[in-house]
Structure formats: structure tokens, C-alpha cells
Amino acid sequence: MHLGSLYTAVASFLDARAHRGRWLLRIEDIDKPREIAGSADRILRTLRTFGMEWDGEAVRQSDRIDLYAAALRRLETRNLTFGCSCSRLQLEDDSRYPGTCRMHPAVAGAPTAIRLLVEPALVYFADRIQGAYRQDVAAAVGDIILKRRDRLFAYVLAVVVDDAAQGITHIVRGADLLDNTPRQIYLQQQLGLPLPVYAHVPVLTEPDDTKLAKSRRSVGVDSVSALPQLLAIFSMLGLPVPASLAGATTTQAWDWAIAHWDIRKVPKRLNVRVTG
Questions:
Q1: Which residues have C-beta within 8 Å of that of residue 52, sequence separation ≥ 6?
Q2: So where are the chain's domains?
Q3: pTM for the complete prediction?
Q4: What is the distance, to the nearest Å, from the Cα of residue 166 to the centroid of all Cα atoms in its chain?
Q5: Nearest-CA neighbor of 230 among 55, 51, 53?
Q6: Buried b / exposed e across 51-61, counting CB within 10 Å, b at 16+?
């Protein structure tokens, strides 16, 4: 776990607890070939060390493949999908999917992805932090991949299905996913699923504005360093931390932050630089 992911988790946790909501934990391990052994358990330990306890059992996407397959079948029976044999190399010069296999059949015998037919339409949502956001998904990215050529389900399908299945009403996450949200909303609409309320906190970046890498500024899990990092994160989220909290326990720090949480105070920016 790195500082950026902890910061986003803290924002989500604060918003849920301040509204007496349930904070649910989901391990998004749908891409098994890229999963690092033991990483999920290390994340859980880190969250607990920083005083974050989730409600119910942690959900793992790798256990929910049947749900994703059922959602895909619903779209297929309505003729909202098509097979695509285009490789990344073939599409590397295109800023959006040009509809190659929508107009022409996929190459016989080639690995085939499943794409969602995306028609021109303006998707709008009101983000609780960033404000009004609009995107024509067809113009921005074209037809969306739901199942990859390697037969793994795509992130966009998995999270949309999971959000509905878990009864998610509010989502707090990083602004790097802001432009991905209209694509999820479009898919939610095609599946007839409820739309959550979204809030996108600024992404933490290095001084040169590059996104905080997972290999840098890793978060220590010892109790000595937990409180100072937690207070620093509160400050970055717009909470004016009083000096008296420097000698507090982690529980006392959380109690204070939950009582003072106001999402309107979170900086309305796409990124925040981390220095020092």
C-alpha cells in the first residue's frame, strides 16, 4: 500500500462514518496474472493498523465471476455486444476505439474480446467534490471492452456489477477515475442498475506532478508512524488539524476527524502535490 491509496481510503472511510453509513471493503483481484502474492493481506493489515475497520466480510472479485458472466449474458441477449479481435498494437494510433469490428466481423480464429455497443449520448453526473461532469462516451472512448481477449472480465463490468450487488449508494475515490465514471454510468444504464453518488478526491502526486507510484512513499504499518501520517492525510483532505491531536491516540484522531468531516472542504482539484 502507498500513501495515495491510503489517502483515498481515509476519505472514503470518513465520509461513510460521518454519515453513519457502512464502509465496505472489496479486493479488486480480477486480473489474477498481475496479482502480487500476499498483497491483499498486507493491505488489510495496513488498514487495521491505521484504525480502519470495515463492515461485513471483505469481498473478492475473483470469487464473483459468475455474477459478471450473468451480466454479460444479459447484454448479449439484447444484442448490445459484439466480438472484437483488434489487438492493442492495431489500435495504438487511435485515441478511441474506431468501431473496426462493429462494422466488420472479428477475424476467425483470433483471440476475441467482447465490447459493449456505445451509442452517442451525453452522460452527466454531479460529483460531490469536482462538480458537474459531462462526457459523450462514444466520442471519448467508443465501444467499451467488457471481456478481454485473454478471457478476463474488464474492470468496468466487474465494478458496476459489484456496486449494485453490494448495494453501494456512495463512492469516494481518486480523481484519476473521474473520466471513467461516465462509462460506468452508461453501463449501469444498459443493465438497469441503480446509480451511486460519486465523489472524486484529488490524486496525490509527486512534486513533478506524476502520480504517486506504488513503489514510492510506501506506508509503514508500525503504530509509531500511523498517527503522523493519518494527521497529514486529514490536513490534505481539508481538515484543519489542531496541535492537540499530535499526542492523541489513533482512535481519538478518528473520532475528531469524523466529527469534523465536511466533504465540501476537500480541495476541488484533480491533484495535490506531496512534498517532503
A1: 9, 10, 13, 23
A2: 3-273
A3: 0.92
A4: 15
A5: 51
A6: bbebeeeebeb
Tell me: the pLDDT tens digits for 57-81?
Answer: 999 999 999 999 999 999 999 999 9
User: Do the Cβ atoms of 24 and 57 come closer than 8 Å?
Assistant: no
Residue type, 120: P
**pLDDT tens digits along 71-125:** 999 999 999 999 999 988 889 888 899 999 998 877 888 899 999 999 999 999 9
- pLDDT category at 276 given cuts 50, 70, 90 is low
Long-range pairs of 245-251 with CB within 8 A, sequence gap ≥ 24: 250/50, 250/51, 250/223, 250/226, 251/51
Write the CATH number of the domain with boundaries 3-273.
3.40.50.620
**Which cell goes with 109?**
480464429
* Torsion of Cα atoms, 79 then 82 then 83 then 86, to 10°: 180
Rounded Cα distance between 71 and 83, Å, is 16
What is the widest separation between alpha-carbon atoms in the chain? Answer: 68
Q: Are 54 and 73 in contact (CB under 8 A)?
A: no
* Lookup: cell for 75: 447484454
Q: Counting beta carbons within 10 angstroms of the beta carbon of residue 257, is it exposed (0 to 12), middle (13 to 18) or buried (19 or more)?
A: buried
Residue 164 grid coordinates: 449494485
Integer angstrom CA distances of residue 255 from 54, 149, 240, 265: 16, 47, 14, 18
Written as one letter, the residue type at 2 is H
